[in-house]
Design brief:
The complex is a heterodimer. Chain A has helices spanning 9-16, 21-27, 32-38, 41-50, 233-236; strands spanning 54-61, 64-68, 79-82, 93-99, 102-107, 112-117, 122-127, 137-144, 149-157, 163-170, 175-183, 190-191, 193-195, 198-207, 210-219, 224-225, 229-230, 241-245, 248-252, 259-265, 274-281, 292-299, 313-317, 322-326, 328-331, 336-344, 353-362. By secondary structure, chain A is mostly beta strands. The radius of gyration of chain A is 22 Å and the shape is globular. Classes of the chains: A mainly beta, B mainly alpha. Chain A: InterPro entries: F-box-assoc_dom_typ1 (IPR006527), F-box-assoc_interact_dom (IPR017451), F-box-like_dom_sf (IPR036047), F-box_dom (IPR001810), Gal_Oxase/kelch_b-propeller (IPR011043), SCF_F-box_component (IPR050796). Chain A: This is F-box domain-containing protein.
């Protein structure tokens, strides 16, 4: 039988890009050409396109942990311990954002950002530029598809002014760049939600006692503020917070009224397209009277299951502890199951949770840093 | 004669001939383009110079089922049925033969099967040791012992749960 010739590199690339991250890390020691190829940005991109996207929820506990948000039942919930190859002593850590499996966080008191790929366990520290103000700063993390690079944006607006001062960092160039004189009439604080190349902040103001919400957005590719999106009145006065769920912006209420409700903007940028995604009576949830954050809404693809409450997890957290409770709902309109994840304060298990958490895509091989190449 | 019109002959590297329905052969981009180039010619033989007969047979089997299942499950359920068939199809193929098959499929430019075979090879090596992967792909280790030890150390966590069969 004739010996099968060696596979050409382009076929090998196709095969390796279908491997899970752990196997890819191991394959780096097969030979020198593989090592350099597997450490390349193009390969990371190829892998990103093929990788099965699953969302995980990250908790800043000791040790760090993550949960599969798409677990089909309580028994399926797998906790994975995550190693971060550095020590973070600060408790003042805030999630800046997550994109393509990378997590970006700000360690404010030590004035640096960290970009971390929990799957490849690679982390990079990025010091904040000197001139930027601490305190009333806002930031965001996302992907610029024109540059094919990830960007961190750090901004501030001086009191009484409407001129924003921005610093933008690109991972590949490893440089901060300053942009001055951009007009922004809103006071932006904290981290942005990233979607479609755009960073979003929710801005809330009061007008004659009524709450008015708007979404301020910044185009990370064009590096410009975009037109402010007003939230329709009927949603605006109920809104407590917002985030990106799947591929949509999502606004949600708190638990004070009779109902909990979350709306998604079905058609990006169209204010008429806000649609109720989730609505249920508050007392249907355990501990509903507590403060909480919406973590994620998942869809379980309309599987035939009996309507029970043991389908998906509910993550419950607090400064000192967190709970995991599973919860699910049947949406009779869409005919789909969805899981519900909340973060709220109530004492549960004795695992310290420091308040830093986020949802990220996993597993991904996206590079945080240019790996050492032989 | 209508019956020969929608048939094409695929000739393997050994010269073995396979008569195939056009509906099946049209999934192979190379066959499609060869036939387009010689449109009007009565000669419907396509020589696949570098593809062995056993691979031609496998590829035809895959796309024959693909076409049949698609027709049968037009209303829905095609993807699940195809997945079932793919599982059974891959079980009959020797792991070493997957490499020959992927080369053949790549040459014939048949995207659906290419994805299936690449995924099958990836699945096969997923939990294998570095030594196994080298042997499977016929790769010579060009690292020094020190270099290799250093790289292993960098991603030590990646070496748990590896098997060598």
């Amino acid at each position: 039988m004739p010996e099968i010739p060696q596979l050409p590199p382009e076929i090998i690339a196709e095969i390796l890009s279908r491997l899970p991250v752990k196997s890819i890390m191991r394959c780096k020691c097969v030979c020198k050409p593989w090592r350099s190829f597997l450490s390349d940005h193009d390969f990371a991109k190829m892998h990103l396109e093929k990788a099965r996207q699953s969302r995980r929820f990250f908790l800043f506990t000791e040790p760090f942990q993550s949960f599969d948000l798409e677990a089909q039942s309580y028994e399926d919930i797998r906790t994975t311990e995550l190693n971060i190859p550095m020590s973070i002593n600060s408790v003042d850590v805030e999630t800046v954002g997550s994109c393509d499996g990378l997590i970006c966080a700000a360690v404010e008191d030590e004035r640096y950002f960290l970009v971390w790929n929990p799957t490849t366990r690679v982390v990079r520290e990025i010091f904040m530029p000197n001139s930027s103000q601490v305190g009333h700063s806002f930031y965001g993390f996302g992907y610029d598809n024109q540059l094919d690079d990830y960007k961190i944006m750090l901004g501030s607006i001086a009191n009484g002014s409407n001129e924003a001062e921005l610093d933008i960092f690109t991972l590949k160039t490893n440089k901060w760049r300053r942009i001055e004189g951009l007009h922004c009439n809103s006071v932006l604080v904290g981290s942005a939600s990233f979607l479609n190349g755009i960073l979003h902040w929710l801005v809330v103001r009061r007008d004659n006692g009524a709450q008015i919400c708007a979404i301020v957005s910044f185009d990370l590719v064009q590096e410009k503020f975009r037109e402010v999106m007003q939230v329709p009145d009927q949603i605006s006065h109920l809104t407590r917070d917002f985030k990106v769920v799947g591929k949509s912006l999502c606004l949600y209420t708190d638990m004070i009224g009779d109902y909990f409700e979350a709306w998604v903007m079905k058609e990006y940028g169209n204010p008429a397209s806000w649609t109720t995604s989730v609505k249920f009576k508050n007392d249907a949830l355990p501990g509903y009277e507590n403060y909480f954050l919406l973590v994620d809404i998942t869809t379980n693809g309309g599987e035939k299951r009996s309507c029970s409450s043991n389908n998906v997890i509910l993550v419950v957290g607090d400064k000192g502890s967190y709970w995991i409770i599973n919860w699910s709902f049947w949406n009779s309109v869409t005919g789909k199951w969805f899981g519900f994840f909340l973060l709220k304060s109530k004492t549960g298990m004795d695992i310290p949770f420091k308040g830093w958490s986020c949802v990220f895509d996993s597993p991904q091989v996206v590079l945080v840093d240019n790996d050492i190449v032989f | 004669m209508a019956s020969t019109d929608d048939k094409v002959i695929l000739k393997s590297s050994e010269g073995e001939c396979f008569e195939v329905d056009m509906a099946v052969a049209s999934h192979l981009q190379i066959v499609k383009s060869v036939l387009e180039d010689c449109e009007g010619s009565s000669d419907k033989v396509v020589s696949l110079f570098i593809v062995e007969a056993k691979y031609v047979a496998m590829i035809i089997e895959y796309y024959k089922n693909y076409v049949e299942l698609k027709e049968k499950h037009e209303e829905g359920g095609f993807e699940e049925k195809l997945k079932e068939f793919e599982k059974q199809f891959l079980e009959q193929i020797d792991k070493k033969e997957l490499k020959g098959l992927v080369m053949a499929v790549n040459y014939l430019n048949a995207p659906a099967l290419f994805d299936v075979v690449c995924t099958a090879i990836a699945k096969h090596i997923e939990n294998k040791s570095v030594e196994y992967v080298r042997e499977y792909f016929g790769i010579v280790n060009d690292f020094t012992a020190e270099e290799e030890a250093q790289i292993r150390e960098e991603h030590r966590w990646a070496y748990d749960g590896v098997n060598d069969d």
